[in-house]
Amino acid sequence: MAEHFHLNTPLLESVSMSKRVGTTVYMKMENSQPSGSFKIRGIGHLCQKLARQSKGVVCSSGGNAGMAAAYVARRMGVPATVIVPSSTPQLVVQRLQDQGATVRIIGKVWDDANAEALRLAEIEGLTFVPPFDHPLLWQGHASLVVEAAASLGPGVKPGAVLLSVGGGGLLCGVIQGLKDVGWMDVPVIAMETVGADCLNAAIKAGKVVTLDDITSEAKCLGAKTVCKQAFEYAQCSELKIISELVTDQQALHAIQTFLDEERVLVEMACGAALAPVYTGLVHRLQKEGRLPTPLGSLLVIVCGGSSINMEQLTSLKHKLKS
Ligand code: PLV
Fold first, then answer.
1. What's the CATH code of the domain at 58?
2. Could you report the per-residue pLDDT of 225-244, keeping only the tens digit for each?
3. Which of 84, 92, 257, 281 is the most exposed place for a label (fewest CB within 10 A)?
4. Nearest-atom index, ligand 1, CA of 304
5. pLDDT score of 287
6. pTM over 0.85
7. Does ligand 1 have an atom closer than 6 angstroms to the CB of 164?
8. 302 with 238, same domain?
9. How confident is the model at residue 33 (pLDDT cuts 50, 70, 90)?
10. Residue 2 scores a pLDDT above 90
11. CB atoms < 10 A from the CB of 261, how many?
12. CB-based contacts of 128: which residues, under 8 Å, 6+ apart?
């Protein structure tokens, strides 16, 4: 039996969110994972399969995949190198180092860091740990839906799932999980911020496209190209994936309201998934007939993230003042 690195996280009912949305809202608290986000599920699973005999792992990351890789590698007794872009806050670099990882800062956005990670893996014979594009990651992430189903109890199915999309690994994992528990007809609201919207751009173009740049402050959503599997799911007529955008200001506002009401601090990448609750987007989708009325419960994936502290929050408030 393989060791699990992730925890079975709480599924909490939010009275404040439920009041706002007008239906029961459940939060899957992935922020309480050991590495601070859901990423440990997939990365733990992938490393179990691929890195047992490894002389070291190398992960390209906006931060959180790296945190998971560093944590898992330390637990496995394998050295970890994490390549992050220069947009990664110093506080994350510090947290990665505290987790025992060697950190290199390469390029401006995640795609630049990824190219270097692939190169290092090749020349140094390290195990490459991708942050979102791998079936083993999706299989690991799927466990969060299986857990949520177990917490809700037999026969209880949410009306919709709300999550954020960076490169699309979380989305692929959740779809996999919905298949595993027989919830394939549950709509998934896939959130990105304006300026980190590679899935939305791909859907509009009808094909996978590469963004020119990442202009959003939600750097952990900042992959320029969505993974092929996520795009294919979005095109699949048997699934209902609703791709929507929020502004950085809306994501930031969501973080602050979430902190006030739930007493939990999450980063911008997660704020994007919370924003629909606070901006009325869920209501709008219902009015447009894209979500059913009444909705049944809403399952929000609180993906978490380490790229935040009070200082970072203050600096984001300053930067995004409109
Ligand atoms: N972050 C990745 C990719 O960054 C990383 O390297 O950490 N919520 C949080 C807190 C995240 O950190 C991420 C991804 C996502 C959501 C989106 O997940 P994805 O990439 O699987 O769609 C560039």
1. 3.40.50.1100
2. 999 999 999 999 999 999 99
3. 257
4. 10
5. 97
6. yes
7. yes
8. yes
9. very high
10. no
11. 16
12. 57, 58, 59, 117, 118, 121
